[in-house]
């Protein structure tokens, strides 16, 4: 006879209340916690989850291979979820109230048809805990730099720990295998990032002498490859950390005469360009400012020019449902943003510009694999992350963000598209937003 010894619950995390006030605070919401307990049982039953409680107990029977939600402090978990919904769910993970031996498997199950998690007759409960995004996080010209600073200015050294040597923080494009799925390895990630960049530059027809505007510099890899083609590049960023490193990388590569990086909001872009490229930047713009964003692209594009975008997308109905919801990702990871739908991009360009979507290619599974490689590397290098001064609450936050994003792409809740916009050059009525 064999017995299984349940893993001991980890000690409570030391949480700095000045840095993490809502993670340090466990709410007292007994009625809402009771509702959360009932919903947890329903979700576990409907999705076949294994809910493990302290002492080796389980909430209810589950298949042996079921995704596991391991509750270390069940009451704290239920009170957080009862008061804050999915924000509370994320904060409970940051605090160490729950864990999972396979976080992506658990989140993938929860991200599959998320609208069915709550009984249809109880959707009114959302108003008990769903808040609208705060006005101070809207990506206005005044707020955008602060929003960008909160994520991209954390530390160049932090991003270097989990990104590949190209320092590219967007979906790669891997070769495909016999089953037409991406073949992703750490060794192949730099080449896959170059494949993605080169395809975008090809879409925009970037070559010798082309005047290229890049909106969203990252750490400079796209500007470098465009300059190596002989293009004249102006790249805009709001991140001071990225600005410094991108300029240094461009200078070290001997391309400073062809590529210039400016600390500049897209709304203040000046000049005329044969091509505009923007990689996973529209997600930070925010829905109220999409017309202004696309108008800026149209305004600086020369006659006959082309715009190549890479954008994370979600289905239109889900985008509408989430557009007025303050989520855990918005609160802790990407303030002020919203992932668009293809339909929203098409409608916004048609209504406010002469730009038209002429091509959109999807690569969602490639992003899932990109995120897997980042997540594994980040987790393995947890001691180095700590050595940079990031506490365990931050490290758990980042692990959850990467795993949550990977699950979204694995289920199809999220996708990523490379999009070509060209201009209808015939005279047309346009409206400035």
How would you explain this protein's 3D organization?
The chain is α/β, with parallel strands linked by helices. It folds into two domains: 110 residues, no CATH class; 288 residues, Vaccinia Virus protein VP39 (Rossmann fold, 3-Layer(aba) Sandwich). It contains 18 helices and ten strands. Strands 6-5-4-7-8-10-9 form a seven-stranded mixed beta sheet, with helices on both faces. Helix 12 links the parallel strand 7 and strand 8. Helix 3 runs antiparallel to helix 4 and helix 4 crosses helix 18. The N and C termini lie far apart (72 Å). The mean pLDDT is 92.
Short account of what is shown:
By secondary structure, the chain is an alpha/beta fold. It folds into 2 domains: 21-130, no CATH class; 136-423, Rossmann fold.
- According to DSSP, the number of beta strands is 10
Helix tally? 18
What is the CATH architecture term of the largest domain?
3-Layer(aba) Sandwich
Query: What proportion strand?
Result: 5-15%
Structural class: alpha/beta
Largest beta-sheet details: 7 strands, mixed
Structural Rg = 23 Å
Strand order of the largest sheet: 6-5-4-7-8-10-9
Total domain modules: 2
User: What is the arithmetic mean of pLDDT?
Assistant: 92
CATH superfamily of the largest domain: Vaccinia Virus protein VP39
| Helix/strand order, N-terminal first | HHEEHHEHHHHHEHEHEEHEHHHEHHHE
Query: Given this structure, which CATH class of the largest domain is correct?
Result: Alpha Beta
Shape: globular
- What name is given to the CATH topology of the largest domain? Rossmann fold
The first-to-last residue Cα distance is 72 Å
Q: Which percent range fits the helix content?
A: 40-55%
Uncertain segments: none
